[in-house]
Automatic annotation (TrEMBL):
It is found in: Nucleus. The keyword Nucleus applies. It comes from the Eukaryota. It comes from Aphanomyces euteiches. The lineage of its organism: Eukaryota, Sar, Stramenopiles, Oomycota, Saprolegniomycetes. This is Mediator of RNA polymerase II transcription subunit 22.
Length: 126
């Protein structure tokens, strides 16, 4: 795949250089009989130059897309780091909930003891 990209890049750059050289060569004015032929050749060189430039831009876009989509290692590392961070947060929340449960249970136990030993409880049962 990388070799194909390099080959396409070389072909596009070579085409750009050839067509630019052709445009410069055709820009010399020699005599009036060759002017129409040179104008046509210049038009062909310019069109080919534009085509090669567009092809090069498409190649760049493909490379960007390929790099973005095929960076699985980086994406996996980021997913693993996020997953690990979320697991740590879950563990912290679980620990906090456990402490809260034990605090609530002990507070409830104390409240029940106070209630059952209080004078209000004893008066209601009578």
């Amino acid at each position: 795949m990388a070799e194909d990209y390099r080959r396409r890049l070389d072909n596009n750059v070579e085409s750009l250089v050839e067509n630019f050289r052709g445009l410069v060569t055709m820009s010399k004015i020699k005599d009036r009989t060759q002017t129409s032929r040179q104008a046509l050749q210049s038009s062909v060189y310019a069109t080919t130059l534009v085509h090669a430039s567009e092809s090069l831009l498409k190649l760049i876009a493909e490379l960007k897309l390929s790099l973005t989509l095929n960076d699985f290692e980086g994406i996996n590392q980021q997913v693993d780091a996020t997953s690990e961070s979320l697991k740590e947060k879950c563990d912290d929340v679980d620990n906090s909930i456990d402490h809260l449960c034990s605090d609530v249970a002990s507070a409830l136990f104390e409240l029940e003891n106070h209630y059952y030993q209080s004078k209000w409880r004893v008066q209601q049962d009578i």
